[in-house]
Amino acid sequence: MYDLAILGGSVVSSDSVEVADVLIKAGAIARVLPAEGSRRADRAGIRASREVDARGMLVMPGAIDPHVHFGLRSRGTVTADDFASGTACAAAGGVTTVIDYADHLPGMTLAQSAAIRLAEVRGQAAADYAVHQNFIRLDADFGEQLAQLHAAGVGSVKVFTTYKDVGYMLEGGDLEALLRAAKRHGVLVTVHAEDDAVIVRVRRQLEAAGSVSPADHGKSRPAEAEEQAVREVIRAAEAADAPVYVVHVSTRGAIKAIAEARRRGLAVMCETCPHYLLLDEGRYAGPNARLFIMSPPLRTPADQDGLWRAVTRGVVDTFSTDHCAFTPEQKALGQSCFDTLPGIPGVQTLLPLVYSYGVATGRITASRMVEMMCETPARLFGLSARKGRIAPGLDADICILDTTARRTLSGADLLSQAGYSPYEGMKVGCEVREVYLRGRLVASRGRFFGARGAGEFIRASA
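User: That's the sequence. What structure does it adopt?
Assistant: Structure tokens below.
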């Protein structure tokens, strides 16, 4: 007897869309039976405690958001979404695994820092999770620390090329040294790429001119900063002969540099976010400019076009949200573009937006969507032993997507404690009908049915 049978849906993988039945037992995929062929013989004697009719629906693996910030302490406050509310948002949107971040703590090794963050998350998360370990300094034994980190199940680190003023920035030639060591120990280096010197210079210019309102946010972190930093990251990766992953790419110049590096055979991977594809810098001209402040900022329509072309050509590897939610009241505490809390909510709307503006418009196929949102992040971050595909033996993380539904996005209908959506009023052409985490129903039609603490830490494997 199976626990659950999802019947007759169009099961999506990176290389096919096939009508099939998905049979689940003890939290894992037990069998996938295509509708073609000897259907009656294949199904003889099959029984399930619960059957779900998925005819006419897309049945895909639960999505993975490889870049979220839940319970982030920043500038004397904490994000509106902790791991409990943030993972509830994720589950309601079809995202069954998230990857958050662990601070690199003073006096602590990388593995110790990760363990402290994971202990904080445990008991809160309603979806499965992993972490990237922030990396801000090269201790004398950093190579050994990387090996210990990987042994503890954390397969990636994050470095910043900016935020020197708050102690996040990894300076000088340290990035190349880190890339070399990380490659030896099977750890992927991810990078927030904005050139700190450019940002500092521009800030001084804007302050001298008195141009520091929230409307000036786009000017304060110009495209030049990202593009210059991305080129330097590529140079370091080439010198180290090591892979690297650039987070939240926002400009056409940066994605062009990445595409050129890949044509030369370099292992330079990247992500972009729905807000860079669907929103532009015009949002800073409106009365709600603070609600759209994030780093990097929103860019031009030309940058959007360049990013979409890169998505369609396979240059962008994954979609993320950089979900970092603050309430309008928290945002309003800032008086300028420099002291307004940066970050927006987005994890619940990730899948509906990618489907509606990527797949439904013909920019990408459903198979490419699943590759970018499920299979590739699982592979890059060491989760593919359990996540990313609908295949026997893997976790039964499944999203049933109704592509006939039409609705208008509203922050009032979403679960984020931010209380608003940057995509307010946008139309989407699908609905996340049901979401299963390891075979258990956790969400349906925007409502959350899971349990705080039910999420598991997913260890990165080699």
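The radius of gyration is 22 Å.
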